[in-house]
Specification:
The chain is 34% helix and 19% strand. It is α/β, with parallel strands linked by helices. The radius of gyration is 21 Å and the shape is globular. 54% of the residues are buried.
């Protein structure tokens, strides 16, 4: 018997992955209906934040979800709220909304039921910094450790946002928190997609969050990558991706969560399906060829996009709309060029592209997942939202003007790409297809 006779053919039965629920807590909206209206109407969630002025920040405007303190009691019991900081609130509200949007019942807290086939990957950039900055560090330095309370660790451990959610929804599959800077939310969705695709879970809540803490935003302010020229009297004009007069990004916060589910599971229970996640990719540029801790290696960006397209089994020309990373920094023209190279297209046949950050700022660990919700609303509702504040397009972006959506348009399309590129030279890209 030769070697060929002993070989066994291995066939992988890969699951198709669909989106059956969405939840969003954004600076300009809470909930899908309000978020869709804000996207369509170009409503900005950027506001003057007096605390930043008191602390002598260069950039004194930002994006923070509104009225969360009033809403939280309709979601959580008092016992839960004792140990929930802002990031945990944002992510849990968005996740519960996504769970309910998928027509799933929130289990009773006193039941013994555990859903072994459902889990979550909820990422964060610097979650818990409000608790660390306001309570943990001051009380330790003042010798008041015993006055911090018994819930300090569960509010400040890196996985606090996912761990809390597992208890709220009785999740028994993988429950974890990823962190990949600005790529976090998109990467969380990709990681969850793989878990379902290879049959390790039926359902995964996936997304990212970050709080509106001066202890988070301060680091970026010190780097001078935020817009230090933002007019506090006209904060809605401050976030300016693709603009010639952009002067840095505007910090934002919130959470976006998708319910990903195997097609078999969704079909079996008759779930409403928003779209299919047909492919994705993540990679790193190795801090080479222009890549660094704070800048992307253009080759790695292009490779990530190409890998996602290959995974999706489509042609580059099949991508009709791109929800870009586009932050309002000097990286914007480079990103546009990377899309052009990765899609192997010309200026004339470049897909439509927009930046949700023009409306909500850069929500850091939550950016990719909030923007994924925006992309899915566009795909399923047949529109492409406008990018505000880029009437004066950057000179290197000007040739692409017909592809830059500045005012919301109605458009029935089939495939949208969502990508994120983060500090650390890390990249992630997702390809969604309209469900028919």
């Amino acid at each position: 018997m030769n070697k060929e006779d002993t070989k066994k053919e291995v066939t992988l039965n890969l699951n198709r992955v669909v989106v059956t629920g969405m939840g969003v807590v954004a600076p300009n909206a809470h909930g899908l209906e309000e978020f869709e209206t804000s996207l369509r109407d170009g409503i900005s969630g950027i506001r003057f934040i007096p605390k930043l002025q008191e602390l002598n920040f260069r950039c004194q405007v930002g994006g923070a979800p509104q009225n969360i303190e009033e809403k939280k009691k309709s979601y959580f019991k008092d016992d839960d709220l004792v140990a929930m900081n802002q990031a945990m609130l944002y992510s849990s509200i968005a996740a519960i909304d996504a769970w309910k949007d998928a027509s799933l019942e929130v289990p009773a807290s006193d039941s013994e039921y555990v859903n072994w086939d459902a889990g979550c990957v909820i990422g964060c950039g610097l979650a818990g910094m409000d608790t660390i900055g306001e309570i943990l560090v001051p009380r330790v330095k003042d010798g008041k450790v015993r006055r911090m309370g018994s819930t300090m660790v569960e509010q400040t451990m890196a996985s606090s946002v996912s761990a809390k959610l597992s208890g709220l929804l009785a999740l028994g599959n993988q429950v974890t928190t990823n962190s990949a800077a600005c790529s976090t939310g998109t990467e969380a969705i990709y990681n969850s997609y793989l878990r379902i695709k290879f049959g390790f879970a039926e359902k995964m809540l996936a997304g990212g969050c970050d709080s509106s803490s001066e202890y988070i935003w301060g680091g970026f302010d010190s780097m001078r990558v935020t817009n230090g020229e933002a007019d506090i009297n006209n904060p809605h004009l401050a976030s300016r991706p693709m603009s010639a007069t952009s002067n840095g990004f505007i910090p934002g916060s919130g959470a976006g969560v998708l319910m990903l589910e195997s097609l078999e599971s969704a079909t079996k229970r008759g779930a409403r399906i928003y779209a299919e996640l047909i492919g994705g990719a993540v990679n790193c540029g190795g801090h080479r060829n222009g890549g660094s801790m704070t800048a992307p290696n253009p080759e790695s960006v292009q490779n990530c996009i190409k890998a996602a397209i290959k995974d999706a089994g489509i042609k580059p020309s099949d991508i009709e709309v791109v929800n870009g990373h586009l932050t309002g920094t000097m990286a914007d023209p480079k990103e546009i060029n990377n899309w052009k190279e990765a899609l192997d297209c010309s200026v004339d046949n470049f897909p439509l592209i927009n930046s949700t950050k023009s409306l909500i700022g850069h929500c850091l660990g939550a950016a990719g997942s909030i923007e994924a919700v925006a992309a899915l609303l566009e795909l399923t509702k047949g529109f492409v939202h406008g990018s505000i504040n880029c009437e004066d397009l950057h000179s290197e972006i000007k040739p692409y003007e017909k592809s830059i959506v500045q005012k919301t348009i109605s458009k029935d399309f089939n495939i949208i790409a969502k990508a994120s590129f983060g500090f650390g030279d890390v990249n992630s890209c997702l390809i969604f297809k309209k469900w028919v």
